[in-house]
Amino acid sequence: MKAVCLKGPRQVELVDVPVPDIANDQLLIRMGASTICTSDLNDIRANPFDIPLPVIIGHEAAGTVVGIGQDVTGFSLGDRITTHPVHPCGYCSACREGKQHLCLNMGHFGIDLQGTMAQYYYVRSDRARHIPDEMPFPLAALSEPVSVCLEALAQAKLKAGDSLLIMGDGPFGVLMARLAQTMDLAHVVVAGWQDFRLSFAKSAQKINTQHLEEPVPALLQPVDSGYDAVILAVGSAQAFHQGFQCLKPKGRLVVFSAIPEGAQVDLMTVHIKEMEIVGACNDQDRFDEAVQMLTNPALGIAELITHQFPLSQFEQALHLAENAHDQVMKIALIG
């Protein structure tokens, strides 16, 4: 089969590899669509997680069941499914405490499990879900991105009438803005640098901060005394500090995107305003909810898939995803 393989920094090739064998608890999937994630681009650029190379990349995917392990029930050949990249072990302390998304022995597509940018890939059957016949595979591939966005919103602990600022206009920030439509919030504001991407945030208020010397006053303009929660959906220390300044007392900053260079924290302000800073990583049992969200026409999540390419054109797809933020939101590779 053909697969997109990461062999070294910025060294990605389409290779011929055997169709994988599956274990007794796994499904073999003919890939229908695999969408490109920002983390895929980070892995290609710098391999920040020290992934053992070479590896087939990709982790957001959906497709058709073409092989079934002998211990698997509930699936048939030809089933259309979406898959979750995180494979918790089930026995470590985190898993035993119900925190499988923070598993200490986690398997993950494109890291220590072969990824989804291939004609075929395998998945443990408990990490697969059926999708409706009418759901396109590129949309179904967004189930995991939606699930992690739901986790970020849950970590924000918002209630009706609260205000939310999302820092970042990439696919995840925009997804959060659309999902927040269902939460009866007083304000949902998205800050970013690209009017093209901000336009996908639908009914959210949009603020382009690219050319603002001091963005904080503009970010605070929609609210009286700051935001109840800020979600950091861009890996930028500058955005972290700006978002932190926009919180009201007892506000909560959710770190969804990691900041590679680190960020200083004003602990005096944390102390005197009783601020909270929390992480959001993977999702805690939100996969089924995410699949359901994909079927909600009011959210229009399929609109985020702006480009589709066959697997053979992976180089063009990756180049656009990396460099064309004024033209591209989400790209799907089609099997």
Automatic annotation (TrEMBL):
- Cofactor(s) listed: Zn(2+)
Signal sequence residues: none
Q: Which Gene3D superfamilies match?
A: Medium-chain alcohol dehydrogenases, catalytic domain (3.90.180.10), NAD(P)-binding Rossmann-like Domain (3.40.50.720)
Q: Tell me where on the tree of life, at the top rank, the source sits.
A: Bacteria
Q: What is this protein called?
A: Alcohol dehydrogenase catalytic domain-containing protein
Look up keyword Zinc and say if it applies.
yes
- Domain Enoyl reductase (ER) per the UniProt entry, residue ranges: 8-333
Question: What is the originating organism of this protein?
Answer: Phototrophicus methaneseepsis
Q: Which PANTHER family match?
A: L-THREONINE 3-DEHYDROGENASE
Cite a single GO MF annotation. Answer: oxidoreductase activity
Matching SMART domains: PKS_ER
Which SUPFAM superfamilies does the record cross-reference, listed alphabetically?
A: GroES-like (SSF50129), NAD(P)-binding Rossmann-fold domains (SSF51735)
Family label: Belongs to the zinc-containing alcohol dehydrogenase family.
Print the keywords alphabetically. Metal-binding, Oxidoreductase, Zinc
Entry keyword annotation includes Aminoacyl-tRNA synthetase: no
